Amino acid sequence: FVGDMQAAGKTTAEIASAIGLALQRKLALPDKPEASVEMAQFRPFYISGEVQNPGQFPFVPDLTVLKAVSIAGGIRRNADNGPQIEKDLITAKGSYDIYDDQRLRLMVKRARIDADLAGKTTFEVPQEIQGDPRLTTIVADETAILISDQKSLKLKLDALDQLKGVLQSEIESLQKKIANQQKQVDLAEQQANSIGPLAQKGLIANARLLSSQQTVADLQGKILDYETAILTAKQSISKAEQDAIDARNTLGSSLTADRQQTEASLNEAGLRVGMQKGLIAQASDPATTAALTGSQEPPLLYSLVRVADGKTSEIEAKEDTPVLPGDVIKVKLAPTASQ
Q: I need a labelling partner for 268 at 20 to 30 A (CA). Which of 39, 172, 243, 309 fits?
């Protein structure tokens, strides 16, 4: 409806607002419609060097270097056990971060769904995750969904209430027309009754009597039309009331199914977090590492190759350095003292 729109340099919320404003102007709407915009797909990221599966991978939000290494299968497997131990540790840490982030998002989503089902406009995050620095963005996203759901339902219900009001006014108008029409019928019948005897005596023409009777029939026909219109309006009111019930039930059913799926995914994420904790503990055990390697392996070095404003630059990175779409991650072993 509004054609192409510039998206570069804008947040999804800004684009949604721009779409709503453009629709309002294009369609001459009294109120700005609600639009929802979310990222369908990011540019991929690339990883090379000492990883098990170098190459191109889909980008996910909140991606860090450690998570990216984990997605790429961890550190490259060598003939000796040393790099394998480090690979297992990095893989476990990266997987733990991914599943822990998923678990956090699911807990906030569950709280939002519970609030939505209860008809609330706000929600509280569970006590066990309060204070987590990642919550600000996640809570803002879920709050936007909560407000959008309830606003959409309210708009539907308000529209149906307005329709019911219009139909009720129409019924009242038709009832007044019926009352006025009935008065005309009564007068026409009186006239027909008064000239009936005269027509029988031949004092007036039968055509006049027939005309009076036809007038009565026409007036009664209009009353029937009005009564039919009232019945139709009442049926439309009943349908509007049913549509309102259906709108509430549809949202409730969707939220209930979404909550069940969220609960199942949350349980799965919790199990995976626990499993990765165990793998981290095992891979981090100094006794196990010493027994298998016999020496301390050199640390890894990370760097990011990034294109910004048409210029390519390489910057040093750490495990917690954020990765952006299109970045190339280089992973290499730090040189030893002999090197």
A: 39
Residue 32 DSSP class: P
Q: If you count them, how many residues does the chain have?
A: 339
How do residues 2-45 score in pLDDT, each as one tens digit?
Answer: 889 988 889 999 999 999 999 999 888 889 998 888 888 889 99
Residue 301 DSSP SS3? strand
CA 5, CA 15: separation in Å to the nearest integer?
Answer: 8
Token pair 């790429």 is found at 72
Straight-line distance from the first to the last Cα atom of the chain, in angstroms, rounded to the nearest whole number: 64
Residue partners of 110: CB distance under 8 A and separation at least 6: 259, 262, 263, 266
Secondary structure class of 308 (helix, strand, coil): strand
CB-based burial of residue 47 (10 Å sphere; 0-12 exposed, 13-18 middle, 19+ buried)?
buried
The β-bridge relationship of strands 311-317 and 45-49 is unpaired
Q: What letter would DSSP give residue 81?
A: S
Tokens of 71: 């997605």
| Contact present, 212 and 198 (Cβ < 8 Å) | no
pTM, rounded to two decimals: 0.49
